[in-house]
Amino acid sequence: MDIISGITIFVLAIFIGFEIITKIPPTLHTPLMSGSNAISGITLVGALLSSGSQHTMVTTTLGFLALLFATINAVGGFMVTNRMLAMFKRKA
Amino acid sequence: MTDILINIGYLFSAALFILGLKGLTHPRTAVRGNMLGACGMLLAVVITLLDRSIVSFEVIIAGLILGSIIGAVLAIKIEMTSMPELVAVFNGFGGIASIFVAGAALMESTLNGATPMTQATVAVAASGLIGAVTFWGSMVAFGKLKGLVGDGAVLFSGQQIINAALAITALALSAGVVMDPSNVILYWLLVLAASALGVLLVIPVGGADMPVVVALLNSYSGLAAAATGFILSNNVLIITGSLVGASGIILTQIMCKAMNRSLFNVLFGVLAPSGGGASADEVYGGKVKSVSPEEVALLFDAARRVAIVPGYGMAVSQAQHSVANLASILEERGIQVEYAVHPVAGRMPGHMNVLLAEADVPYESLKDMDEINQYIEQIDVVLIIGANDVVNPLARTDPTSAIAGMPIINVDKAKTVVNIKRSLSPGFAGIPNPLYAMDNSLMLFGDGKKAILDIIAALKDT
């Protein structure tokens, strides 16, 4: 992948992000933050690639640490967001 | 062939993230949105495991299982009042993961004396820099929220100069990484400099400004993930990282606007100098009326519409359940109860809403500032619990005040205002609040939760 298409994707995705989030009601600011934070645990993909490729001991260790933190970020983030959202109820 | 399949899979996963974020913008679709995001993540992980460069699965399985357990325990055990801390910690973990991914990628790419492409090394430097600022910034934010580090703004002379020097050092080291990728030490020095920068950037931010920082760090964690995407030429990382980066920036903007402060002023701990406003004695002198819980109960007897304004004080005294209990007692008596929530009330965006939702308050009763201000004159009793600066009419009336121009909830225009507060001490802005001395304003001094319980007891007696 050349750098230009990478930057193209980057910029377009930023625009999508702006468009989607602009109308968020204040009620959901916290779940949005923890949910989007869980999504940023996507670094997990990078961590899988470095921990699984087994070049040297050092890179595998770094990969393992990255994998550990990214998994906590993603799994914990989605679960706590779900827990929070389950509390938001309509009038009975 | 596998490459094509993998990339199509990543495309699906990116689409799921977009739909998931979209779902999070409405209460009715939010749960499903979060699920879609989780599915996107699962898909991305499964697809990545098909990648040919992965030869060993033991380490991966160990990491995934251990990480999932830790994440799940944290998510299940956490008290809702500690949510700002947890969000800060998770943000930080995203950042530190990026540091390690970039470090590992840099070392792999130079293993056999090969020279990695410039675009990859630029991304490595960016990932290490943003990742370290995110991690250490989040850890300091965590410490402040938890009360381990002073909650107030920590300012010392020469702070700006040290920050500038650190930023220049970090940029120079980044250039070093790009020019000489085989020298891995340069990368770790860069991470070190960026770590110091992350600490120093958040240290000066105090108390009521925390929502801005938490939102900004959220944005950084996305940008760090996007940078790792450029290192690995991986689309799903780039797309997802920039989505999160953009959403964090928007939240940051909303928070800054809600305080009428620039991001620069928040980040460098600059409070607008107060133009020698009136002293507390001049403002309050003999005009503050204190009431008992029984008198407040009598006020409610005559009221038809009540609005509750919660602030950080409600979170501190863990009063959300008592507040919701009071509200349902009032509703049983035919009184219409609403909650007026200021966008920056609390220590993170949406903090009050989460606490009230935990206490089973339906989200239709949560009104935002602009909405309630349209009919605040019709409210018979406004009950303020633990909020101060966000209801200070000086923001509207005194252009020289430290909070001039900040949008506030115009509680002073309601028929009666009851302030639950420990004392007349000022809020984060450090200025007196003339609301407390107004004719329609009453003070109920005491701890937030205890005061609410006393009002409930008094209501039950009548």
Write a brief caption for the model.
The complex is a heterodimer of chains A (92) and B (462). With 92 residues, chain A is mostly helical.
Question: What would your notes on this structure say?
Answer:
- The complex is a heterodimer of chains A (92) and B (462).
- Chain A is 77% helix and 0% strand.
- Chain A has four helices and no strands.
- Chain A has a domain at 28-87.
- Chain A is an all-alpha fold and 92 residues long.
- The model of chain B has no long low-confidence stretch (mean pLDDT 89).
- Chain B has a six-stranded parallel β-sheet with strand order 3-2-1-4-5-6.
- In chain B, strand 4, helix 17 and strand 5 form a beta-alpha-beta unit.
- Chain B has three domains: 1-77; 81-267, no CATH class; 280-461, Rossmann fold.
- In chain B, helix 8 (210-232) packs antiparallel against helix 9 (235-259) and helix 14 packs parallel to helix 18.
- Chain B is built from 18 helices and six strands.
- Chain B is elongated, with a radius of gyration of 25 Å.
- Chain B is an alpha/beta fold.
- Chain B has helices spanning 2-23, 30-49, 58-77, 83-109, 118-146, 159-179, 184-202, 210-232, 235-259, 263-267, 280-284, 293-301, 312-316, 320-332, 351-358, 369-374, 394-397, 448-461, and strands at residues 305-310, 336-341, 366-368, 381-385, 416-421, 441-445.
- Classes of the chains: A mainly alpha (92), B alpha/beta (462).
- Chains A and B meet through helix 1, helix 2, helix 3 and helix 4 of A and helix 1, helix 2, helix 3, helix 4 and helix 8 of B.
